[in-house]
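SEQUENCE AND FOLD
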Amino acid sequence: MALRLLERLRALFATERSGDSVWDAIPRWQYDGRHVESGGLTRSEQEDALADVQRQAEARERRNSR
């Protein structure tokens, strides 16, 4: 179930990873700096949440594979 959620999230953000997003040109460390007012803070929170979901899914997979 967690992997299905992760795959859906990946598919949702797939277009952004393919170079279609202006955020591809902005280093992550600048999200909270000069780009905070143009959505950098939200972008940072979204990427952190996605990474957290991925870590949780991997941990569950490791537990289930034992």
